[in-house]
């Protein structure tokens, strides 16, 4: 199945699809959860991953009848936090929330402290956040086509920022370069905020980032938003066209958030958590919050999320190898 078909499937997940999933064995006399649940976030508080975990936290507490604690374990491009999940007891007391970097890291790092295929299992894809492309207001191009024409005529004169080597922003721009046959200079930053600061100041001309970092800047006219790396427009930015609409078929790039569990976690517990997460994500209240963040609500089965991760790992692995991307 192609990446675009998988993306469409997860963008348009319905309640009917979740209901049709194969039912897991009944939980043993309702014994789970018998104690507080920990959700590990492998990044600092306040970012996209942390926001997604905290979106489902209150609902999970209410529905499961136990405290749900967010445990931020940042460092090493999420490897520290993910490793903590992988090595946690598989008893249903520990879960983790990861983003697109989780799939990229499989190729980006020659040796991981965990084995994604053996140590972790998918629970649910929570949301997909297509990246936005923003250019400096004073740049000599105002549209995607003008950017391509300028970059081809002036190789190396366009510089683009990212939140670090191997980040979703970096890899999406490398994919853009490959598909448009352009040469632009990468400037990695330690986070999205300093990259956006230099975009506003004109030190770089192009920046792909998650919508949460660019929506307000674009609406305020501080940057020019030239496209969404998605197959459909964002409800929060209805006037910003997708790159697919602009003639760049198959060009999509996103960050996303999903929940994992340690391998060996009982299947009925994984299934129950998946159903609860999906129910919360698909609620009208949560959907409204996700729309404002420029994120499409998902809520998948464990099997669908595993397939999604496999497709993302292949897609970004190809980009990393082709572009020669190295970890910081």
Description:
- With 328 residues, this protein is of the alpha/beta class.
- It folds into two domains: 3-129 and 254-323, Bordetella uptake gene, domain 1 (D-Maltodextrin-Binding Protein, domain 2), CATH 3.40.190; 132-228, 3-Layer(aba) Sandwich (D-Maltodextrin-Binding Protein, domain 2), CATH 3.40.190.
- The chain is 42% helix and 18% strand.
- It is built from 13 helices and eleven strands.
- The strands form two sheets. The chain has a six-stranded mixed β-sheet with strand order 2-1-3-10-4-11, sandwiched between helices.
- Helix 1 crosses helix 13, helix 5 (101-108) packs across helix 13 (302-323) and helix 8 packs across helix 13.
- The chain is globular.
- Residues 1-29 have low confidence and may be disordered.
What is the fold's blueprint, element by element?
Elements: H1 3-11, H2 15-19, E1 37-41, H3 48-64, E2 68-72, H4 79-86, E3 94-98, H5 101-108, H6 116-119, E4 120-130, E5 132-136, H7 144-153, E6 159-162, H8 168-180, E7 185-188, H9 192-201, E8 206-209, H10 211-219, E9 223-228, E10 254-262, H11 267-281, H12 284-292, E11 296-297, H13 302-323
Parallel strand pairs: 1-2, 1-3, 6-7, 6-8
Antiparallel strand pairs: 3-10, 4-10, 4-11, 5-8, 5-9
Helix pairs in contact: 1-13, 3-11, 5-13, 8-13
């Amino acid at each position: 199945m192609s990446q675009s078909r998988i993306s469409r499937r997860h963008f348009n997940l319905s309640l009917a699809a979740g209901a049709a999933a194969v039912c897991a064995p009944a939980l043993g006399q309702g014994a789970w959860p018998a104690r507080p649940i920990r959700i590990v976030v492998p990044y600092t508080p306040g970012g996209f991953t942390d926001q997604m975990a905290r979106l489902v936290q209150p609902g999970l507490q209410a529905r499961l009848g136990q405290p749900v604690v967010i445990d931020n374990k940042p460092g090493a491009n999420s490897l520290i936090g993910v490793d903590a999940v992988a090595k946690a007891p598989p008893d249903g007391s520990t879960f983790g929330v990861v983003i697109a970097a989780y799939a990229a890291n499989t190729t980006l790092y020659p040796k991981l402290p965990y084995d994604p295929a053996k140590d972790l299992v998918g629970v649910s894809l929570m949301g997909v956040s297509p990246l936005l492309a923003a250019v400096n207001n004073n740049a000599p191009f105002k549209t995607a086509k003008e950017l391509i024409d300028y970059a081809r005529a002036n190789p190396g004169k366009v510089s683009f920022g990212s939140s670090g080597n191997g980040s979703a922003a970096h890899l999406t721009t490398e994919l853009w370069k490959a598909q448009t046959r352009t040469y632009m200079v990468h400037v990695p930053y330690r986070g999205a905020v300093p990259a956006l600061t230099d975009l506003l100041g004109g030190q770089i001309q192009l920046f792909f980032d998650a919508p949460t970092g660019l929506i307000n800047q674009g609406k305020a006219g501080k940057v020019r938003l030239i496209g969404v790396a998605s197959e459909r427009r964002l409800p929060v930015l209805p006037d910003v066209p997708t790159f697919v609409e602009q003639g760049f078929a198959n060009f999509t790039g996103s960050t996303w958030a999903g929940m994992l569990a340690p391998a060996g976690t009982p299947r009925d517990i994984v299934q129950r958590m998946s159903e609860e997460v999906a129910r919360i994500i698909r609620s009208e209240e949560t959907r409204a919050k996700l729309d404002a963040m420029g994120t499409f609500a998902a809520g998948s089965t464990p099997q669908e999320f595993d397939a999604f991760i496999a497709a993302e790992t292949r897609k970004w692995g190809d980009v990393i190898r082709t572009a020669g991307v190295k970890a910081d």
